[in-house]
Structure prediction request, 389 residues.
Amino acid sequence: MKRNAMSGLFKFGRFNVITVFFTLFFGFFSKPVLAQSAPIEGFGDGPKLVIALMALAWVLLAGLQTFSASMRTKGVRLFNWNKVNAVLMVFFLVAFMLFVLWHFLKVMKFTLPISASAHGVELDGMLNVTFWITIAVFVVTQVLLFTFALAYRQREGRRAFFYTDNHQLEFYWTVIPAIVLTVLVLYGTKVWREITQVQPAKDALKFELFAYQFGWQARYPGADGELGGHDFRLISATNSMGIEQTDSAGQDDLLASEITLPVNRPVLMKLRARDVIHSAYMPHFRVQMNIVPGMPTQFYFTPTVTTKAMQEITGNSNFVYELACNKICGAAHFNMRMKVNVVSDEEYVVWLAKQRHYFRRPEPTNAVASPDVPSSQASTTAQGLISAR
Ligand SMILES: [Cu+2]
Prediction:
């Protein structure tokens, strides 16, 4: 009897020694790895502490298990491991939920501020509804899962109840999610149609964004409010956007190196690509549209918050809206950014007057007060625009 107990202890003891050895071994080597890894901003030594505590708990549990197993060979039952496991599951549930909550609060400051466009408010509302429903389902199902593990753990003298199926239960868990998902999909479709299928207003400001590897060009209409036609076959070193010189509407078009939009006026953003698929992404306005070569796309929206107002809302005096390419379009994709300003009507008029003409001005007495720029300079090539920035 004594001999058996000793051999049992030795067997489990050896297992435990190996466990402790590997824990220390990996702990020793993970230390320089953790030290070299870049610290996660705002998290400090938290992740390291959690890993260390988990390793410690693991070693302690392994030790307890060994001790308990050795005692059982002597006929002494120290722990009811079924119960320990069930309680640990509930402990894990609470710890995990608290971790998720803490993490949410921690990363909240990296999320976008309120929507700076009219349709964005509705889009955010839809996302919030979806989030709250999925969060509620997540919490309810996880609580049920882990508390069932505790409530229905193996117990002395209790037999599991066996049944093959329950039609009523299956009916409810099929029909309820089906209804919820149908409502969410219909709601999403409605919002999507309201954003993309709307007829642009007559007085909408038109401007064009031209995407190329790797940068943007913005074209604004002159006094006529109309953009000139374009043809990709006209693209050359002196006509980088391929604008039709013969089209009178394009004679007074302006070229800008950043986007400026008047607040509360609907804008129709025309999109064209020169080479590969790009994507115009303006997260603060909840705007994104792919830009496909040979297939012009557009996005219609209304900016509602000026840059200045957003600086006050975010409490960040350096805040600027941004346009970024959201398709990995090549080696310098990361460089495809453009500043976006939202200003008052008066400021917009002043800004527009300062932009240079795409082509040489047709008449020297043009209404737009802009310095005369030779056509060779006015139609900047893509390369020239990059170096100018
Ligand atoms: Cu791109």
About this structure: Residues 211, 278, 325, 327, 329, 333, 336 surround copper (II) ion (CB under 6 Å). The first helix runs from residue 2 to 36.
